[in-house]
Specification:
There is one protein chain. By secondary structure, the chain is mainly α. Helix content is 65%, strand content 0%.
Length: 284
């Protein structure tokens, strides 16, 4: 049997040889793939997006206090819950209830077994929401072009965790990786409007988002109505807060014109809002 010292020397020599072989190739790969920021990204290649998805879902697992549907139940929802919360104006969290992912127990044995694991829909709040951040950070490192990671993390940082400056830093990082992202610009606008009470900077972000959206729609030929609604409603609220009712009405009317005719309920609700705002201000 070889002596331990000989084995150790052989391993060191092999490590050195591998390092000298890999380093010049890593430089070449970096030059041909400028978007790859680390050796880990080079080695993993496009598979890093798959791992990014995994860590994003892992954040949702922690968000639900460790309970998550099995692979047989995951098809019952289209997106993770932290994304639904981040995309909503409603406050995070709701009453605890039997988890919607669970199907009714098939027999008394399964019903009895549920007494030994969490079957309630619970969500992290306050400082406890910090548990989702490491997973979102890893997801962002693995796939910097996944815009949703930045907006979701910023939503929780500026909201439940009361860390708006950290939210801004994370969003700025996402903006550098995704300079044309309408979603990140809108989240920055909300951050400045709701957390920093800085309407001037908020308006700048929403106006830039509007220009990016126009360019995006011209490039793809497809309208993005949710983004347009978010931008125009936000600009209207800023105008109303500053007393410029005429501009607020103009943005709402622009949104009304963008709504397709088949969305009758939305059009009527918006018409009512426009009429109330015009009546309130005396504008015509």
């Amino acid at each position: 049997m070889p002596a331990p010292g000989f084995i150790l020397t052989l391993l060191v020599a092999l490590s050195f040889t591998l390092a000298t072989w890999l380093q010049p190739r890593a430089v070449t790969w970096n030059q041909s793939r400028a978007s790859s920021g680390s050796l880990l990204n080079i080695v993993m290649g496009d598979a890093r997006r798959m791992f990014a998805d995994h860590f994003f879902v892992k954040a949702d697992v922690y968000f639900h206090s460790g309970y998550y549907p099995s692979i047989f139940d995951q098809g019952r929802t289209n997106e993770v819950h932290i994304s639904e919360q981040a995309g909503s104006d409603a406050p995070a969290g709701h009453e605890e209830h039997e988890h919607e992912y669970l199907k009714p127990p098939r027999d008394w044995v399964e019903a009895f077994g549920r007494n030994f694991f969490n079957t309630k829909h619970t969500e992290l709040t306050g400082a406890g929401a910090n548990e989702i951040l490491p997973w979102l950070r890893i997801a962002a490192e693995l796939d910097p072009q996944r815009v949703e990671t930045y907006t979701v993390a910023a939503f929780w940082l500026r909201g439940e965790m009361k860390r708006p400056h950290d939210a801004e830093a994370f969003l700025r990082e996402g903006q550098r990786a995704n300079p044309d992202s309408v979603e990140i610009l809108c989240e920055l606008g909300r951050l400045y409007r709701e957390n920093f009470q800085d309407n001037a900077h908020a308006r700048t972000f929403f106006q830039l988002a509007a220009r990016k959206l126009t360019a995006q729609e011209a490039r793809t030929g497809e309208p993005d109505l949710p983004a347009k609604r978010q931008i125009l409603v936000s600009l209207s609220r800023l105008d109303e807060a500053e007393g410029d009712i005429a501009a607020a009405l103009q943005h709402l009317r622009q949104l009304h014109a963008a709504l397709p005719a088949e969305r009758e309920d939305e059009r009527r609700a918006l018409e009512k809002q426009i009429a109330e705002l015009a009546q309130k201000s005396g504008a015509k």
